[in-house]
């Protein structure tokens, strides 16, 4: 199981720093995720080189990721780290989801019947055409916060 939460950073001596990153914790430990992660998709191969045996990406060494030039230094509060991850989710959401042909649900923002879906990681939000955008998804996410655990 993976648990997503803001955790306080520790210094090299294991003492709290007063700064937070949004993290994913599992049996192998905790690591920063989203905009708090020190890694980003390789701009040269778009993260695809590790899947292709016919291509070598010199920038990332076929790992698909590179270190960020300016990694997140941490946040003063856990709430700021949580908001940073929420912005990452909004930045990486997909707005082209559709329900099955015989299915409709009410838009989470206005209540209009829709087949539209915005996809955020492993989660989704039912949104009409007028609200299936970043602003509408932001409103839906704030109205019905869901715990982030996989």
Short synopsis of the structure:
The chain has helices at about 80-90, 135-145; strands spanning about 5-10, 15-25, 30, 40, 65, 95-100, 105, 115, 115-120, 125. With about 150 residues, the chain is an alpha+beta fold.
Describe this structure in words.
- The chain has 150 residues and is an alpha+beta fold.
- It contains two helices and ten strands; from the N terminus they run E-E-E-E-E-H-E-E-E-E-E-H.
- The chain has helices at residues 78-91, 134-143; strands at residues 3-10, 16-26, 29-32, 39-41, 65-67, 94-98, 105-106, 113-114, 116-120, 123-126.
- The longest helix is centred in the middle third of the chain and has 14 residues, at 78-91.
- The N and C termini lie close together (6 Å).
**Mean pLDDT, all residues:** 92
Distance between the termini: 6 Å
Count of individual helical segments: 2
User: In which range does the helix fraction lie?
Assistant: 10-25%
Oligomer: single chain
Q: Mind summarizing the main beta sheet?
A: 3 strands, antiparallel
Supply the key terms.
150 residues; alpha+beta; three-stranded antiparallel β-sheet; 2 helices; 31% strand
Task: Map the helices and strands.
Elements: E1 3-10, E2 16-26, E3 29-32, E4 39-41, E5 65-67, H1 78-91, E6 94-98, E7 105-106, E8 113-114, E9 116-120, E10 123-126, H2 134-143
Antiparallel strand pairs: 1-2, 2-3, 4-5, 6-9, 7-8, 9-10
């Amino acid at each position: 199981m993976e648990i997503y939460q803001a955790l306080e950073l520790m210094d090299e001596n294991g003492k709290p720093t007063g700064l937070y990153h949004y993290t994913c914790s599992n049996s192998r430990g905790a690591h920063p995720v989203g905009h708090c992660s020190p890694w980003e998709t390789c701009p040269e191969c778009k993260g695809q080189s590790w899947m292709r045996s016919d291509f070598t990406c010199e920038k990332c060494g076929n790992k698909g990721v590179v270190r960020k030039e300016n990694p997140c230094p941490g946040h003063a509060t856990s709430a700021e780290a949580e908001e940073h991850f929420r912005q990452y989710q909004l930045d990486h959401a997909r707005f082209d989801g559709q329900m099955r042909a015989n299915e409709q649900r009410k838009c989470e923002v206005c209540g209009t019947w829709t087949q539209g879906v915005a996809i955020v990681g492993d989660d989704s939000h039912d949104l009409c055409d007028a609200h299936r955008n970043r602003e509408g998804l932001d409103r839906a996410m704030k109205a019905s916060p869901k715990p982030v655990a996989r």
